[in-house]
Design brief:
Elements (H helix, E strand, L loop, with lengths): L12 H6 L12 E3 L6 H5 L6 E4 L10 H6 L3 E4 L14 H20 L7 E3 L2 E3 L3 E5 L3 H12 L3 E5 L5 H7 L3 E2 L18 H15 L4 E4 L14 H6 L5 E4 L16 E4 L2 E4 L9 H19 E2 L2 E2 L6 H6 L13 E3 L2
Parallel strand pairs: 1-2, 1-15, 2-3, 6-7, 6-9, 7-8, 9-10, 10-12
Antiparallel strand pairs: 4-5, 11-12, 13-14
The structure holds nicotinamide-adenine-dinucleotide.
The site of nicotinamide-adenine-dinucleotide has 31 residues, from helix 4 and helix 5.
Length: about 325
């Protein structure tokens, strides 16, 4: 492992050594495991036959997949692991989305000028906050559950009708706008222009009634859908809060500034990036379990021998390079 790779998650090098790791140069290992995509400098340290695993952002326009392939490196992008039951334990998108959904509610609560729970006090009764979650995948479902635990009155909305039961299962109401945009692989498809307009108009009306709006809507490989217009923000009560988790792909709210918290029309709009990094202990623990399960799938008698007839490995492998000679060592880089 690279010295200090665990520092951000408060795991000292000594703990890795105790677990049997060697601290040194990870770039010559047979398998290099990362969180973020490798930089050009890091790719320069790799040679043909090595394997890289991590969030490789294969759908981003500036991805490094071509450079990894040209270097003869076999690369597995955790984003491309299929959403099938058997692969749940390896699903790093899900494990990190859980962290984001949870933390988004805490950000909303801390920015809010109001309580989340109902309070009955000698000085009067406080009504519970109303919380609307737009886009109820893994992050959205966790946000609904967390907001409920904090005492909020929760509502969920998505374009995949199958989500309605999941929303109700965490004690939230389902907002039905009559748009069905279920796509492939459990993801949503992009809406048509007419659907977008209809959705924005309907949401503009619905959003007015909420103290907190948390948005998590994504369409793989596309800019984030615009769900919350400037007009919708203007219609919200002063002191309301929007937490936009889609900032990395442009944001679900028209007035979002990715990575910043802005106040417009007396509404606070927060768009924190990379929320899992703000909870490094559990984010790392979950990611490590995902990676260990994926590595295990590639090992045969302790040797790296990925079987590409396995859908999980075939889908997640994003570079096709000649088979390297198998040896059994893995390294972790920061
Ligand atoms: P995601 O991050 O791609 O998108 C978040 C949500 O935004 C999705 O629910 C999507 O439907 C919604 N969305 C997209 N466009 C929208 C729009 N215009 N308006 C409103 N909502 C919109 O989703 P995700 O969290 O990666 O989850 C995708 C699916 O995969 C879910 O059905 C999830 O339950 C499923 N999943 C399955 C497994 C498994 O079985 N192994 C594991 C993880 C996730």
């Amino acid at each position: 492992m690279e010295a200090g790779a665990g520092r951000g998650a408060l795991i000292p090098d000594a703990a890795f050594v105790e677990a049997g790791a060697v601290v040194g140069d990870p770039w010559s290992a047979e398998v290099v495991v990362k969180v973020a995509p490798p930089s050009d400098v890091e790719i320069g340290k790799l040679s043909a036959g090595q394997t890289v695993i991590g969030f490789l952002a294969p759908r981003n326009a500036d991805n490094k997949i071509g450079a990894l392939r040209d270097a003869g490196v076999r690369a597995f992008a955790v984003e491309a692991i299929p959403r099938i039951s058997r692969a749940q334990v390896m699903d790093a998108l899900s494990s990190q989305a859980n962290v984001s959904g949870y933390k988004a509610v805490l950000v909303a609560a801390s920015e809010s000028t109001r309580f989340f729970p109902m309070l009955t006090t000698a000085a009067g009764t406080v009504k519970p906050a109303t919380v609307l979650v737009l886009g109820v995948g893994v992050a959205g479902l966790q946000a609904l559950a967390t907001a409920k635990r904090l005492g909020g009155r929760t509502t969920g909305y998505d374009v995949r009708p199958e989500v309605a039961d999941q929303v109700r299962s965490v004690g939230a109401q389902w907002l039905d706008l009559g748009i069905d945009a279920a796509g492939e692989g459990g993801y949503a498809r992009e809406l048509t222009e007419a659907e977008k307009e209809r959705q924005q108009q309907a949401l503009e009306d619905a959003i007015k009634g909420f103290d907190v709006v948390i948005t998590t809507a994504l369409v793989p490989g596309r800019p984030a859908p615009r769900l919350v217009t400037a007009g919708a923000v203007e219609g919200m009560r002063a002191g309301s809060v929007i937490v936009d988790l889609a900032g990395e792909t442009g944001g679900n709210c028209e007035l979002t500034t990715p990575g910043e918290t802005v106040v417009v029309h007396d509404v606070t709009i927060a768009s924190p990036l990379n929320l899992p990094a703000t909870m490094p202990e559990h984010a790392s623990e979950l990611y490590a379990k995902n990676i260990a399960a994926l590595l295990e799938l590639m090992l045969v008698d302790g040797k790296l021998a990925p079987d590409f007839s396995d859908q999980v490995l075939a889908d997640s492998c994003v570079t096709r390079v000649p088979e390297p000679e198998a040896e059994s060592a893995a390294a972790v880089a920061d």
